[in-house]
Amino acid sequence: MAEKIAFFEIEGWEEKIIRENFPKENVFISKDKVTKLCLPQTKDFEVLSVFVDSRIDRTVLDCFPNLKCLATRSTGYDHIDMDSAKKRGLKVLYVPGYGNNTVAEFTFGLILNLTRKIYQSIDQIKETGSFSLQGLRGVDIKDKTIGLIGTGRIGKEVAKIAKSFGMNVVAYDPYPDKKFAKEVGLEYLDLDKVLSWSDIVSLHCPYTKETHHLINKGNIRQFKKGAYLINTSRGSIVETEALVKALEEGILAGVGLDVLEEEGETKDELQILSLGHPKEEELKTMLRNHILMKMPNVLVTPHNAFNSQEALERILMTTLENIKSFLSRKPINIVP
How many CB atoms lie within 10 A of CB 112? Predict the structure, then answer.
């Protein structure tokens, strides 16, 4: 009997590729996400593939009694309740690498937008028609120091781009790659030194219990005054309350965020509020996110760093291979 496989958050161009790869399986395809407030009518799937806007918690998992495998089309997996998945004995598969250059390029888009006030310049002309340079003076990034928190695939790409701009590169990583450091001329330091030495700090580490609020009220004052912070990794690596205070007090000159803490809740806040009695901390974080969005020296983008056509094609093809490996009882790319 053919396996029942469900793909959610699918774009039109992906459907043909999926069906070509699984001609004999019973495949269900939907553009919708999966959350406890948005569940499909059919729930007897054995394999479930989702993207980052789905929220797979214990309540959702309990709705799929036949589920054996979760294949997320992403590198991060904080949208999945891993403890509940483990208790169910589910195999959770992910995409370990797909857009190293894609996210790194976007990172520098945020850096240049902040340091040269590109978005502000464009917005001024569109909104007022003014060509005044008042308030639009920026700073060079050549000879400045960029501090990378995490030197995995994406962090390494950012380091190489930074070097091409003539920047000095320092980094913090609990597992330093000394060979790479020597190749590109990168210096590893402890976290406090990276924060205090860097003109720009860019986050490229996964979200884990150890990295939760890695940037927080306790160390936000370690930043060099007037530094910039870029986060294209995961929102909860930064404590939002600390970030707002650092901006209000002028510790940070600007921030570029492609991710927010409680990002899913902020996107779905009307649904969250309609349930009644949301957690107090979630409400506070959503409010602070709105404060950040309104600050003139903060750029917030909608988790868009991964979003190039080439990267999405790589994500899909890796996911299809992941599912095929599971069906053949030789699963690859299992979440560690």
Answer: 16
On the CB side of 321, how many CA atoms lie within 13 Å of its CA? Answer: 12
Choice among 73, 204, 234, 288 that is catalytic: 234
CA distance 314 to 326: 18
Sequence-separated (6 or more) residues with CB below 8 Å from residue 293: 300
Rounded to an integer, what distance in angstroms lies between the CA atom of residue 54 and that of residue 64?
A: 14
Residue of 263, 265, 269, 288 with catalytic role: 263
Check: CB of residue 253 under 8 Å from CB of residue 141.
no
Question: Is 42 exposed, middle or buried (CB count within 10 Å of its CB: 0-12, 13-18, 19+)?
Answer: exposed
**79 is a catalytic site residue:** no
Which tokens in the block code for residue 286?
Answer: 């959503």
Over residues 88-143, the pLDDT tens digits come to 999 999 999 898 999 999 999 999 999 999 999 999 999 999 999 999 999 999 99
| Residues of the chain falling short of pLDDT 50 | 1, 269-270, 272-275, 277
Q: Is 263 a catalytic residue?
A: yes
Burial 232-256 (b: 16+ CB within 10 A, else e): bbbbbbbbbbbbbbbbeeebbbbbb
3 has catalytic annotation: no
pLDDT at 7: 98
Name residue, tokens 């799937």.
45
Q: Which residue has the tokens 């450091």?
A: 181
Q: Which of 73, 79, 288, 303 is catalytic?
A: 303
- How far apart, in whole angstroms, are the C-alpha atoms of residue 132 and residue 270? 40
Single out the residue of 227, 229, 204, 170 nearest to residue 306, CA to CA: 204
